[in-house]
Write a structure and sequence with these properties.
46 residues; single chain; mainly alpha; 70% helix
Length: 46
């Protein structure tokens, strides 16, 4: 059980890190294009 819960925790962390990376990439793209960045703050979906 401990092993599977560890894998689940790692998967959730990896998912969160990918989401953060995509938000940061979105900011970089918007800053380089001069567009607003608020569109990328929809992190409520899981």
């Amino acid at each position: 059980m401990a092993i599977s819960s560890s894998f689940l925790a790692k998967a959730k962390i990896d998912s969160l890190l990918r989401r953060i990376d995509s938000i940061i990439d979105g900011f970089k793209a918007d800053i380089s294009k001069g567009r607003p960045t608020y569109e990328h703050w929809d992190i409520s979906k899981d």
